[in-house]
Design goal:
Structural class: mainly beta
CATH topology: 10 Kd Chaperonin, Protein Cpn10, Chain O
Number of helices: 1
CATH architecture: Roll
Strand content: 35-45%
Number of strands: 8
Order of helices and strands: HEEEEEEEE
CATH class: Mainly Beta
Oligomer: single chain
Distance between the termini: 22 Å
Radius of gyration: 15 Å
CATH superfamily: GroES chaperonin
C-alpha cells in the first residue's frame, strides 16, 4: 500500500505523508468506547517523506523515514484522500516523537 501512495504523492521539503493509526476501541480496563467517545488518534505511520528542509542553501535531511511510527500534535497537518484512503500531510516540526 505505501509504495502505491508514495508513487502518487511525493511530499516536498520537510513534509511527511502519514497514515493515521486506528483509535483504541477499548480502555485498558476492557470498556468498549463508542465512536463519539474515542479521542482523535495522534499516532501514525510514515508512508512518504520529503528530502528535507533547505536552510542557507543546504538540505538538512529529515529525522523520520518511511515505516517509522510517529506521534504528532492533535490539530496538526492537512487531511487528504488518495485512492479512497485517508492520509495526513505534516511538517516535520509537527512530529513530536518517533515511537520505538
Amino acid at each position: 500500500m505505501a509504495t502505491c501512495v508514495a508513487s502518487k504523492v511525493q511530499p516536498l521539503g520537510d513534509r511527511v505523508l502519514v497514515k493515521v493509526l486506528e483509535a483504541e476501541e477499548k480502555t485498558k480496563g476492557g470498556i468498549v468506547l463508542p465512536d463519539t467517545a474515542q479521542e482523535k488518534p495522534q499516532q501514525a505511520e510514515v508512508v512518504a517523506a520529503g528530502k528535507g528542509k533547505v536552510q542557507d542553501g543546504k538540505t538538512i535531511p529529515l529525522e523520520v523515514k518511511v515505516g517509522d511510527k510517529v506521534l504528532f500534535g492533535k490539530y496538526s497537518g492537512a487531511e487528504l484522500t488518495v485512492d479512497s484512503e485517508e492520509y495526513l500531510m505534516l511538517k516535520e516540526d509537527d512530529i513530536l516523537a518517533i515511537v520505538k
